Amino acid sequence: MAYRKVYIALVAVVLGFFIITQGRSFENATEILRDGEDNVFQELKILKEKNVALRREIEDLEAVSSKLTDQNLAISTIKEEIAKYKKLSGKYPIFGQGLVITVKNEISTPWVIDLVNELFSTGAEAVSLNGVRIVNFTAGIDTLPQGQLLINGSILSQPYTFQAIGDGKKLLEILQLPGGIIDRLEANFAKISINIEIKDVIQM
Amino acid sequence: MVKKLTIVFGIVGVLIGVMLTFQFQTSMPLSLDFAADEALARENLFKEFLDEQLYLQDRIINLRGEISQTEADLNIQSETANLEILESLKMEVGLSKVHGIGLTITLQDGKNAVREGANVSDKDLVQASDIRDLINILFASNADAIAINDQRVIASSAIASVGTTILVNNAYITPPFLISAVGDSDIMLQRILNDSLLKGLHERNKKQNILFKIVVKNIMTIPIYSGDLKTNYLNLVNKDGL
């Protein structure tokens, strides 16, 4: 009889060991979830696309440089440059096609940062959060002691609305990839509700 | 009594089986069978792309410098005001060097870290999310300009990872990661050292999973942005007037 008690105790210990191991493995999985899991092929694809984008930028800059040396074209080139950088500066209202993501229920600052990062990473040319466009002088999301998000002096409350100007279809496709940011958000916040809509015109 | 015990053992056995199944189905990164071969192939392919990337980024920096110089040399009186506006806009989007006081933060993988091959150790590696969180704190502390390993970071800079590789502006960076920020170093320092804002990073630093060092600098320079700036989908609401 005493042997049986020992067996049961041993089995209970083994069981406890597995429960703890199991719990820890999920803990670890949660820690790495913020960045997803990718592979070498995707790595190479990104590098290839990056180099294509850099070559295009060089072509554009060479064209600007060339036009500036022509007195007849210099003035219009400066105006084009001003228009381009006005669009990027965040100080002038802009519009364009893109998508709107509405997130209901609370999410934490790191995940908001991740979603904004993902939008820029997948090709969004401009992003706003609850009406605040994210540019150099507004970037940086603070967390207040009560957990609210603060951006550029504005306290944000849910629903959180992320607007992104860019190729809406492409953005949607990448965001919704299995294991992508939307999957990871839903895996981390059980009560979260995410709605994504492609829009012809978004203004920010 | 024996029957009862048999049932107990049976149930416990099933539970262990279920646990084992879950354990082995947990989706952690799995090591590849041919890790060494893959690492070598990856290294060779990468080298070609990265060499080209470095060349292209250098070319962009040079071209932007040439353009700014040409604009400064233009002798068109009617355009003086526009050139000033242009210079100011370039500064706002990150196309001007920024000098001033600030700080540097060095993030280094832990001593036991393995970034390549089959035995990658996630806890001992600096993750893209660590860098994102730090950059966010620096921006929130009103940093004037930020760079990571000499890559200027702007609001639209993506800081991502693909496997264990970290990409800033889609450009490959390797450890140690040196984050430089020009701005009010007291405010930045206070925020970075606040445990509650960077909990995970501070905890891993205390356990020496990763190494984290901050140095205040009296003078430093942040380079101009060397990536592409796309405006294909952006339109100004008010197109007229400058």
Task: For the structure shown, list the relevant keywords.
A: 204 residues; alpha+beta; Alpha-Beta Plaits; 53% helix; B: 242 residues; 3-stranded antiparallel beta sheet; elongated
Protein architecture, described:
- The complex is a heterodimer of chains A (204) and B (242).
- By secondary structure, chain A is α+β, with helices and mostly antiparallel strands.
- Chain A is built from 6 helices and 8 strands.
- Chain A has a 5-stranded antiparallel β-sheet with strand order 3-2-7-1-8, with helices on one face.
- The mean pLDDT of chain B is 84.
- Chain B is built from 6 helices and 9 strands; from the N terminus they run αααβαββββββααββ.
- Chain B has helices spanning 2-25, 35-73, 80-93, 128-140, 185-192, 199-206; strands at 98-109, 145-148, 151-153, 159-162, 165-168, 171-173, 177-182, 210-222, 235-236.
- Chain B is an alpha+beta fold and 242 residues long.
- The interface between A and B is large, with 95 and 92 residues.
**Strand arrangement across the biggest beta sheet of chain A:** 3-2-7-1-8
Structural class computed from helices and strand pairing of chain B: alpha+beta
CATH topology of the largest domain in chain B: Alpha-Beta Plaits
The chain pair with the largest interface is: A-B, 95 and 92 residues
| Helix content percent band of chain A | 40-55%
Residues in β-strands, percent of chain A = 15-25%
Question: Over all CA atoms, what is the radius of gyration of chain A?
Answer: 24 Å
